Amino acid sequence: MTNRLTVTYRIRASAATIAARAQSVAVEQSVEMPIEAITDETVLRDIVGQVQDIVDRGDGSFSVQIGLALVTIGTDAGQLFNMLFGNVSLQDDITLEDVAITPALTEIFTGPNIGMDALRDRVGAAGRAFTCSAIKPQGLPIAGLADLAARFAEGGLDFIKDDHGMANQTDGRFADRVPAIAAAIRATRSATSYVPSLSGDLDAMRAQMRIASDCGLEAVIIAPMLAGFSTMQTLVRENPRMAFFAHPTLGGAARIAPDLLIGKLFRLLGADAVIFPNHGGRFGYAPATCAQLAANATAPDPVLRRAIPVPAGGMVLARVGEMLDFYGREVMVLIGGNLLLARDRLAAASAEFTHAVAQHSYR
Amino acid sequence: MTNRLTVTYRIRASAATIAARAQSVAVEQSVEMPIEAITDETVLRDIVGQVQDIVDRGDGSFSVQIGLALVTIGTDAGQLFNMLFGNVSLQDDITLEDVAITPALTEIFTGPNIGMDALRDRVGAAGRAFTCSAIKPQGLPIAGLADLAARFAEGGLDFIKDDHGMANQTDGRFADRVPAIAAAIRATRSATSYVPSLSGDLDAMRAQMRIASDCGLEAVIIAPMLAGFSTMQTLVRENPRMAFFAHPTLGGAARIAPDLLIGKLFRLLGADAVIFPNHGGRFGYAPATCAQLAANATAPDPVLRRAIPVPAGGMVLARVGEMLDFYGREVMVLIGGNLLLARDRLAAASAEFTHAVAQHSYR
């Protein structure tokens, strides 16, 4: 089964419901549509996720192993996370627990450029643990940060990293800060390695990498949850002599209120339409959450254009009227799999959908 | 207070502890170090987060408003999320609830390029809700997807989006898929707008945007949690005539087991060192979780170089021996704020730290 990746989820369920729930996860994380609407034999055989094992953990939850087709992942790190946990991360009965790291996977994602053992040689940390500290606070003038770094270096630390809050703010630009700190450490003649923090988009991070290299630095720190997984993947690939530290910041995004994250912040970033799991569908948002999310997306603002709320996730034709009663005109109705169920009547079913929306009597 | 952004958190706490807990959040999301170690008056006045309000919600939790300095955010979307919820997302008593969208903020982050009202004009959806569907499954040959799209278009849908699982996989490359689907829709002479899904890094997404533009498309879909916030910000800025749909995939990343996310997946992506909240520090990971995370980061693998576990988050000099007993040599000890407390004895304290590690008797 080298063409599949075995992924383990922990799912809260009863013995009576777990088989169906496991199958629903296998579908959600692969084709995301009703199986019975799929006619292509290759898709059914090679693409749809497969439930491989279900084990009762005896605490009201089950360990479920699902085989995901490697071809759905391809070679992109963002898509890896998307297939592992993308949609089901929005369901509250499930945790992504494990992924089997197989040769087929490590042929695509090749891990650290340098790794612990060579880093041990680099900094002279044979036979012992490594040491590290961080310079902060952000907002301190660069000379102050450089002085802190020099003193850490005098103390013989292996690594000194930027605080992860130090980005490229006006009062501490990377291009000004990093050379000054690197020089301060170098002046101590210690073996200390400085690890500046990357921020911004790929262009910005590439420019920062060049500055770090020009300063003779051999390590940087990046926050994968902020940078984007593909961004990190590319930088790692482009800089084979550079070591990468990963910062866990924002590793707990599930606990951002969805009406804020999706309705307000994604709009703030420039989303013209924000898709979210409607109540009564495959996901767990309450009606009040959905209403607030839509209100946030559409509230007038002196600067921000209004965004379209797009409730989705298992919507069906029969719900169009109720959804329009709930959201009014300021919404986009998104129906996916339910329309596809019509198969050779797809155009007609789509027309029923468009007519239902066109002819609705808005309250 | 236009130089501060008011952020609302919901925190589970008792009446006796909430004031101190609120203050700890204000510090964590700004300077991330002991206040008493800060000598710079400007930092204390203008950078450190300020608790602005605490309201008892009567359910064992409190609404806490904290004013974060806008200067710590700068102009980067990734840094915005970092300051809003980065580190405290890793603490399990707190939810990010709201952010006040002020003129100072919308001067930096300007929201949708197009917005609902103009999109209504574009697709001719005056006085009614929008309609949308998705083409899938991934793995279906392109001709099959194009045929589905044409049938949706014949049904008069406003928008047809790619399934978010459709990335740039071998059997459905964006450059092949999108022109074919766009042409199929155009041939129906409907007003339907096709919304292809972006994936990969910034370079890849830019290339996809050019293809979409060349096809005459006016909207794309992006997953901010996958793409990285800064990536989305840049694309929005560079393509002022393009509408962006936001997909919520991976919005629930907190429920990825940390030993997997940090110990295994970040390593897989290329992290040479993975920082994580050690047990007994400011965050809630159990000792067993930390041990497993470290084991995952350091397990031998035929391809992946081993990564260094870096337990952190409120570590102190006095714990060095215990940490080394727990993790052994295969670790990097990261002590930040506690060393900075030494102030003018910083080099000496650092030396104590390095000596403690160098002289430890590993079990």
Chain-wise SSE layout:
The structure is a homodimer of 363-residue chains.
Chain A: E1 4-12, H1 18-28, H2 41-47, E2 50-56, E3 61-69, H3 70-73, H4 77-85, E4 94-99, H5 103-106, H6 115-123, E5 130-135, H7 142-154, E6 159-162, H8 174-186, E7 193-195, H9 202-214, E8 219-222, H10 224-227, H11 229-238, E9 243-246, H12 258-269, E10 273-277, H13 287-298, E11 308-312, H14 320-327, E12 332-334, H15 337-340, H16 346-358
Parallel strand pairs in A: 5-6, 6-7, 8-9, 10-11
Antiparallel strand pairs in A: 1-3, 1-4, 2-3
User: Given the helix and strand composition of chain A, which structural class is it?
Assistant: alpha/beta
Most extensive chain interface and residues per partner:
A-B, 178 and 178 residues
Topology-level CATH name of the largest domain in chain A: TIM Barrel
- What is the top-level CATH class of the largest domain in chain A? Alpha Beta
SSE topology string of chain A? EHHEEHHEHHEHEHEHEHHEHEHEHEHH
- Mean of the pLDDT scores of chain A? 89
How much strand of chain A? 15-25%
First-last Cα distance of chain A = 55 Å
Number of H/I helices of chain A: 16
Largest sheet of chain A: 4 strands, antiparallel
